[in-house]
Specification:
250 residues, mainly alpha, two-stranded antiparallel sheet, 14 helices
Length: 250
């Protein structure tokens, strides 16, 4: 029977997500499109004059909103995470030779960061949280995970390798009550301390970070002080050489 209004499609878009016959193809299709859109959005916002704090807020709230929605359904490949992170770094430090490591920016404010949401950390947390909840609520999924080989997962489940390799290394308190925020903090705790802290271990850094993040300061002041404390102020050695400052650290 030939029905004129019935047709077959290799892919279909529902609620902003492209569905296909293969999960691997779905991941590539959706994330390729999203990476392009993020680059376009960041290019438009790069024409604005924003402070470092304002750029971080913009990235966390507006630019990456679709990233977290899609990450909760389909995890990005490493190449997609790297492209988005690189684009974010270009937006944050455009034409600035002095830069703070992007993983430091992801740390909490009282630990020398600005709470920047990194795709590599948060998308992994969303993936682990969803899978652990499914393991506890879907009987066949639990048995499937227990019998799967971590070194040879099914080809059509690229995220399964991460689940099988990461789950045994997670702390028991996270496994008992998993949330995406706990996973995100778990990965942040594994990042290196700010270099300025290791070079000056006797300083009360919690107080320093709290002072430069004071809400009574303007966004521009907080951004400038943050760069100054991290010893990333441009031309500071030149200012000291021409006796404009008492120390090359200022």
């Amino acid at each position: 029977i030939q029905v004129d209004w019935l047709r077959t499609e290799e892919e279909i878009k529902i609620l902003g997500v492209i569905f296909a016959n293969s999960i691997r193809r779905m991941i590539s299709l959706n994330w390729d499109v999203l990476v392009g859109k993020i680059r376009q959005q960041i290019w438009l916002h790069s024409m604005r004059t924003l402070t470092l704090h304002q750029k971080v807020i913009l990235l966390n709230t507006f630019i990456t909103a679709k990233v977290w929605y899609l990450s909760s359904l389909l995890p990005p490949y490493c190449i997609h995470s790297a492209k988005i992170t690189s684009t974010m770094g270009t937006f944050l430090w455009r034409r600035q030779p002095a830069r703070v490591p992007i993983q430091q920016l992801a740390r909490p404010r009282d630990q020398g960061g600005l709470k920047l949401q990194l795709v590599a950390f948060k998308s992994k947390g969303l993936l682990l949280n969803r899978h652990l909840q499914e393991i506890g609520s879907i009987p066949f999924y639990s048995s499937f995970i227990s019998q799967a080989n971590p070194n040879d997962p099914p080809a059509d489940l690229p995220c399964l390798r991460l689940i099988l390799q990461t789950q045994p290394r997670l702390p028991p308190q996270i496994l008992q009550n998993p949330t995406s925020d706990q996973f995100h903090r778990f990965y942040l705790d594994q990042t290196d301390r700010p270099r300025v802290e290791t070079r000056n271990p006797t300083v009360n850094w919690k107080q320093v970070w709290r002072n430069i993040g004071n809400r009574r300061l303007t966004s521009e002041q907080r951004s400038n002080w943050y760069m100054l404390v991290n010893e990333k102020t441009e031309h500071r050695r030149l200012w000291h050489a021409i006796q404009r400052t008492d120390s090359e650290r200022c």
